[in-house]
Amino acid sequence: GENVEQHPSTLSVQEGDSAVIKCTYSDSASNYFPWYKQELGKRPQLIIDIRSNVGEKKDQRIAVTLNKTAKHFSLHITETQPEDSAVYFCAQEGGSNYKLTFGKGTLLTVNP
Amino acid sequence: DGGITQSPKYLFRKEGQNVTLSCEQNLNHDAMYWYRQDPGQGLRLIYYSQIVNDFQKGDIAEGYSVSREKKESFPLTVTSAQKNPTAFYLCASTRDSTSRYGYTFGSGTRLTVV
């Protein structure tokens, strides 16, 4: 079955620094990898996603990279701000059943 | 709530009692999902439905039941067989049976056993 490992579980950075969260997956048939941000007490919201036909995608301060050979993908946040503080989840779409399997989440704290 | 509404926001259950969590969407999405969120555990799939009148068990379906009689609605019943029901429950929907359009989540229901 699908399995997604996410690291680190917690990450603390100073405002302005970069943050990197990494995920590895097991289903080699997966083609879609989204990232969600969940602020305290709120619902997860999609922030960026990547499909297997590209290796990198960027949206302002957020970027995602994908290495299909190694079966891992990463979220990069540059010039972090306090409002980036949240729990971030990676996910993969199952190659056979199309449902998302989530990582366990990373609590990112950006210290002013 | 961006087209998907969960109610109630907070719910208290007594031991041995069944409770039903509501999830309604007006996005015309085909697929709907129920996840359970516990600290440090991420999002774990309980049940999902990719079409009306059909649903499938997820990874942790024991002690839960669902129905999908209407496209807009996917209620979750937490039965007395669920031994540790205290958690944050999230409902989600997506346009079709694939995930390529991303999930839209509801704002969640926090269930507490008293």
Describe it.
The complex is a heterodimer of chains A (112) and B (114). With 112 residues, chain A is an all-beta fold. In chain A, 0% of the residues lie in helices and 56% in strands. Chain A has no helices and eleven strands. In chain A, strands 2, 4, 5, 9, 10 and 11 form a six-stranded mixed beta sheet that branches. In chain A, a hairpin with a 6-residue loop joins strand 9 and strand 10. Chain A is globular and about 45 Å long. Chain B is mainly beta and 114 residues long. Helices cover 0% and strands 51% of the residues of chain B. In chain B, strands 2, 4, 5, 6, 9, 10 and 11 form a seven-stranded mixed beta sheet that branches. Chain B has a four-stranded antiparallel beta sheet with strand order 1-3-8-7, with no helix packed on it. In chain B, a hairpin with a 3-residue loop joins strand 4 and strand 5. The radius of gyration of chain B is 13 Å and the shape is globular. Chain B starts with a strand and ends with a strand. The mean pLDDT of chain B is 91.
List keywords for this structure.
heterodimer, A: 112 residues, mainly beta, 6-stranded mixed sheet, 5-stranded antiparallel sheet, 0% helix, 56% strand, globular, B: 114 residues, 7-stranded mixed sheet, 4-stranded antiparallel sheet
Break the fold down into its secondary structure elements and pairings.
The complex is a heterodimer of chains A (112) and B (114).
Chain A: E1 4-7, E2 10-14, E3 19-25, E4 32-38, E5 45-51, E6 56-59, E7 62-67, E8 72-77, E9 86-93, E10 100-102, E11 106-111
Parallel strand pairs in A: 2-11
Antiparallel strand pairs in A: 1-3, 3-8, 4-5, 4-9, 6-7, 7-8, 9-10, 9-11
Chain B: E1 4-7, E2 10-13, E3 19-25, E4 31-38, E5 42-51, E6 54-57, E7 64-66, E8 76-78, E9 87-94, E10 104-105, E11 109-113
